[in-house]
């Protein structure tokens, strides 16, 4: 019945988040301008899709987010087969969860991306070996 699900991530500005995700292989495939910046964008890597929309654009489109300056960060969990590559690509970004090994067999590290959302990158042992 449902083929996919993608959260729309509210941000003040989209462009810094595009740079963050470009470093780990995402490409911008859709953009909608809002004045001198983007109001909406879709990023893709393989079959993985991320959507960003500015808080002001969300408010103008739907009236949601009555205070466009406030929003709750989204927590994203991304599986990778190259945690070391992700860490190298994201040097300089804020680490909010130091690298750890979990009880469920993943090595993980968490970053705050420029839009304020928390992104955990996780590599599972069996995928790293393969």
Summarize the structure.
Strands 1-4-3-2 form a 4-stranded mixed beta sheet. Strands 5-8-7-6 form a 4-stranded mixed beta sheet.
Provide the CATH architecture: Roll
What number is the mean pLDDT?
Answer: 89
Estimate nothing, just give the exact number of structural domains: 1
CATH superfamily: 2,3-Dihydroxybiphenyl 1,2-Dioxygenase, domain 1
Counting copies of identical and different chains, the oligomeric state is single chain
Global morphology: elongated
Considering DSSP H and I runs of 4 or more, what fraction of the residues is helical?
A: 10-25%
- Number of distinct helices: 4
What proportion strand? 35-45%
CATH class (first level) name: Alpha Beta
Q: Strands of the largest sheet, in order across it? A: 1-4-3-2
Characterization of the model:
This protein is of the alpha/beta class and 130 residues long. It has one domain (8-129): 2,3-Dihydroxybiphenyl 1,2-Dioxygenase, domain 1 (Roll), CATH 3.10.180.10. The protein contains 4 helices and 8 strands; from the N terminus they run E-H-E-E-E-H-E-H-E-E-E-H. A 4-stranded mixed sheet has the order 1-4-3-2. It has a 4-stranded mixed sheet with strand order 5-8-7-6. A hairpin with a 2-residue loop joins strand 3 (37-45) and strand 4 (48-54). The model has no long low-confidence stretch (mean pLDDT 89).
């Amino acid at each position: 019945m449902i083929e996919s699900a993608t959260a729309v991530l509210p941000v003040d500005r989209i462009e810094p988040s595009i740079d963050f995700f470009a470093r780990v292989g995402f490409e911008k495939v859709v953009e909608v301008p809002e004045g001198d910046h983007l109001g909406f964008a879709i990023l893709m890597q393989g079959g993985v899709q991320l959507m960003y929309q500015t808080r002001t654009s969300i408010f103008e489109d739907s009236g949601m987010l009555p205070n466009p300056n406030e929003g709750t960060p989204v927590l994203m969990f991304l599986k990778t087969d190259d945690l070391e590559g992700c860490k190298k690509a994201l040097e300089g970004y804020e680490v909010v969860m130091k690298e750890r090994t979990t009880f469920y067999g993943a090595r993980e590290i968490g970053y705050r991306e420029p839009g304020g959302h928390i992104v955990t990158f996780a590599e599972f042992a069996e995928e790293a070996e393969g």
